[in-house]
Amino acid sequence: MIERTVQVGSPGGLHARPAALFVAAAAAAPVEVTIRTADKPAVPARSMLAVLALGARRGTEVTIAADGPEAEAVVDDLAALVAGDLEAETTDA
Amino acid sequence: MPDRLTGIGVSPGLAGGPVYRMPDPVTLPAAAPVSDVAAERKRATAALTLVADDLTRRAEAADGAAGDVLRAQAMMAADPMLSSDVAARVEAGTDAPHAIDEVFEGHRAAFAAAGGVLAERVADLDDLRARAVAACLGVPPPGVPDPGEPFVLAAVDLSPADTAGLDPARVLALVTEQGGPTSHTAILARAAGIPAVVRCAGVTGVADGTRITVDGGNGAVEVDVTAEAVASAREAEVTRRAALSTVTGPGRTACGHRVALLANIGAAGDATGDAEGVGLFRTELMFLDRATAPSFDEQVSGYGEVFAAWPDMPVVVRTLDAGADKPLPFLTQPGEPNPALGVRGLRTARRAPQLLTDQLHAVAAAAHTASARVKVMAPMVSTVAEAVEFAEAARAAGVTEVGVMVEVPAAALQAARLLEVVDFLSIGTNDLSQYTFAADRMAGELADLLDPWQPALLELIAMCARAGTAAGKPVGVCGEAAADPRLAPVLVGLGVTSLSMSAAALAPVRAALAGHTLARCRELAEAALHGAPPP
Known about the structure:
The complex is a heterodimer. Chain A is of the alpha+beta class. Chain A has a single domain (about 1-85), classed as HPr-like (Histidine-containing Protein, Chain: A, 2-Layer Sandwich). Chain A has helices at about 15-30, 50-55, 70-85, and strands at about 1-5, 35, 45, 60-65. In chain A, helix 1 packs antiparallel against helix 3. Chain A is globular. The N and C termini of chain A lie far apart (about 35 Å). By secondary structure, chain B is α/β, with parallel strands linked by helices. Chain B has three domains: about 5-20 and about 145-245, Glucose Oxidase, domain 1; about 35-135, Enzyme I, Chain A, domain 2, CATH 1.10.274; about 245-530, TIM Barrel (Alpha-Beta Barrel). Chain B is built from 20 helices and 16 strands. The two termini of chain B are about 30 Å apart. The interface of A and B includes residues 20 and 53 of A.
């Protein structure tokens, strides 16, 4: 199991648009990814409802975990995404 | 032969087109036994997919923040956990609509329990649930209909949530069975420049697609009209708008008496029309949806942006107006038995004086570097002592022009004494109606009491205006009454010196003033004080 713990970087927390971007990235990953906070159990990172229900605000520590051959790269990428300011990203969608 | 319905015209203009009714809220039928589990599961997941696809399509068509919200909602609908939970319930014997309903209920409870921003998303979940259940039952989704052509929207009443995404390019007019002149529908329609009629009995009984015409001025709604009648209503509207736009420049009567026409705004980017300044800058926007008050620096830069948008023009800043329908977690207390009669407006400064002091200093600091002529006024003032205290605080902070709002009859009765201690009065007619007639602003059934033509309301306005004339100080109106082109000449006849309204209302009001001499305005005012109906 590969894990990375980072602080949420988006000003509004892991909410609305930042949550949508994170969940979309997790769903596209080749392995199953989970996310948890210090006080809430791990939930599937590709579940928008579960990720929102974590209620992670800016600065909340979240732990991203995955298993499997590509887990390390996936977890690193997703952790970097959460730690950055997802509200500042531009959308091309 | 067309039928004629009548309501109260609350946003002037003529419109014609097919009418479509706001769908009823989706209700769950009684639970049904499931005979074919596989088919039922397919029915449930197909409904979720339909909703997700529809939201994704709408997200792509919308831009900016609206698109982001829809995209996030689409991802909730497409959540793989959601469909697997629903499927599991169907396998256990629950029918598709109930399975969807129950799974959403679980998530709703989790969101509500988490509180904060998550609790605010409960409405999104409820909307998704209603859409998914509707898709499952094969009934129209809740929300504003989308017939694919411009249409007249009919509804029992419209909530802020219903109207948030209303597109004036698609919605020709609004007609509601309930609501009143100060209802959300009326305010929204005037702000957007959409003709609207409220309290129009029978309009929701008209079949979807029927051609109707709407006169938002006199409240007439003709049902089942010819295509020619629709075309002529549209032509008349084009002519009306063209006539409005020929009257330009500062507000004045036909004889040249000046009446400043100002804008009500909430932020720097709000439409300005060709207003001569800002008569009401609502500062609440910066304070809403937050856990703590904005910092001093944040306020200075926020106010500065607004002032920069109005160079060399007057800008009246209303200090924080919280409480009642605008609660703030760091300031107002929930659970007041009578919030409209509770600690709201300036009264919140009794509880948190520093918040007001900080705000006044931030306004003064922002005004210092701006060319706008910045004034401040306090909401919900009811005594001279309150006005004295506010004026002293404002002047100590460095704001030179200070006024108070007249929203409570007690303030109107003391208008002359208030003007001994402040520089101007601004009358908020919506609240003044509510408190004069002891009638809740949102109570559609009491619309007749909240009618701004009520002589008792006009008498209170007249008292303020007379006090202003005697003191040589300005008395403005910034409530919805100022935006009514038929009432504007009456207000001017009463002695009001400025009218402040949403940008879309400026042109009709400007044209109405240009069509009357001051002497005629005074005659109309005299008649209205005696209870004459609107001309």
